[in-house]
Amino acid sequence: MRENGTIKFFNHDRGFGFITPENGSKDVFVHITAFEQAGIGTPVEGAKISFVAEDDRRGRGKQAAQLELL
Q1: Does 58 have pLDDT greater than 90?
Q2: Where do the domains of the chain lie?
Q3: Residue 67 burial by Cβ neighbours in a 10 Å radius (0-12, 13-18, 19+)
Q4: DSSP 8-class letter at 55
Q5: Looking at residue 44, what is its pLDDT?
């Protein structure tokens, strides 16, 4: 299910951050590769984004995928 949110934090040195969903659920992890796969340049904190929360391959919870800038 596609959700909208805001990039809350992004650590450019480590290549990851978190998105705060508009629906009030807990923050979702996002990796730099999700931005690269979507063709989105440098992540900017505070930017509005649409995403799909998918299960992390390592079993650590949800992570954002299929990103689109709003």
Answers
A1: no
A2: 1-67
A3: buried
A4: E
A5: 93
Under a CB-based contact definition with an 8 Å cutoff, are residues 44 and 19 in contact? no
Could you tell me if 10 and 16 are in contact, meaning their C-beta atoms sit under 8 angstroms apart?
A: yes
- The pLDDT score that the predictor gives to residue 60 is 77
Residue 23 is which amino acid? N
> What's the whole-number mean pLDDT along residues 17-34?
95
Instruction: Say if CB 54 and CB 30 are below 8 A apart.
Output: no
- Mean pLDDT throughout 33-48? 94
Region of 55 please: left (phi>0), alpha (psi -120 to 50) or beta.
beta
The residue type at 31: H
44 vs 68: CA distance, rounded Å: 13
CATH class (in words) of the domain with range 1-67:
mainly beta
Would you call 31 helix, strand, or coil by DSSP? strand
